[in-house]
TrEMBL record:
Organism this protein belongs to: Actinacidiphila paucisporea
Name of protein: Streptomycin 6-kinase
Molecular function as annotated in GO: kinase activity; phosphotransferase activity, alcohol group as acceptor
InterPro entries, alphabetized: Kinase-like_dom_sf, NH2Glyco/OHUrea_AB-resist_kin
Entry's Gene Ontology BP terms: secondary metabolic process
Source organism superkingdom: Bacteria
Keywords tagged on the record: Kinase, Transferase
Coiled-coil ranges from the UniProt annotation: none
Keyword rRNA-binding: no
Signal peptide bounds: none
SUPFAM superfamilies attached to this UniProt entry: Protein kinase-like (PK-like)
UniProt keyword Transferase present: yes
Amino acid sequence: MGSAAHHGRPAAGDLEPPERLVRTVTAWEGEAGREWLARLPGLVADRLDRWGLAVERVVAAGGQISMILLVRTEDGEPAVLKVGMVNRETEKEHAALAHWDGRGAVRLLRAEPAEGAMLLERLRADVSLRSLAEPKAMLEAEGVLQRLWVPVVDGHPFRTVAEATGELAALLRERRSAPFAADAGAVIDEALAAQAELAGSADEVESVLLHGDYHHGNVLAGERMPWLAIDPKPLAGERAFDLAWLARDRLSTLAAQPGSRATARRRIAKLADALEVDAGRLRGWSVFRAVEAGVWYLSVGGRDDGELLLEFASWL
């Protein structure tokens, strides 16, 4: 670590992962997560050194499975260093960002995929679409998505929606019999039926590059463009799949107001209409994604989040 100190950069000891990151990684990833957290300060220090970066600060809110640092490059340009856990969902993040090349998404400056390290253009981390009123946020979100949905060519590196949801459906089937899912049998069965039908007919619908985790919190204010997407978990597949997260955005606010069921259904109809996707397919993917995520939350002890997602699925 001598060289890091020599360049006036923090040593690994100063690069402790933020509390929120430690909490989520420990709860979600178990032993593998704890091992990664132990290695993380060293990974970050090494990357700062190799890429000649000076740290301004660690972003405490940061990512749920990644450490985010505001840095300056050797030329003094502001940038962001992101070092995240590499898993099935995140392993192609750099490839998607490189494919978009700044069009609708944050620009990738450098990457070391094996370590989950990326140097990204700096956006306004504290200003996401959540800062806008919901109708305006939805309008902006739709505009960004239309730039992201580019055709994928043969031989692309991304998993398909059918493959990814097939794996999730298998896990959901296993979890159906667990004590924590005791009350959710009917809605789980509906979600599994929807996934089987939608994945089975995937060839009939145009396939594009999808963001995979698209919601208001993952779209930040930028300098070159008003709004840019971050944090993709990319897949190749139909547009309706990407809209399923958007359909349940700001869910706690939605649940707290009267007529939530009618509002949720109206939202699906409006999104389908605005982005020219089949409303039935959007409804099906919204049910599957909400149930799958809800049961996953129940499995890691997040009862409130889990029950809210299952309730949303039941409204549709």
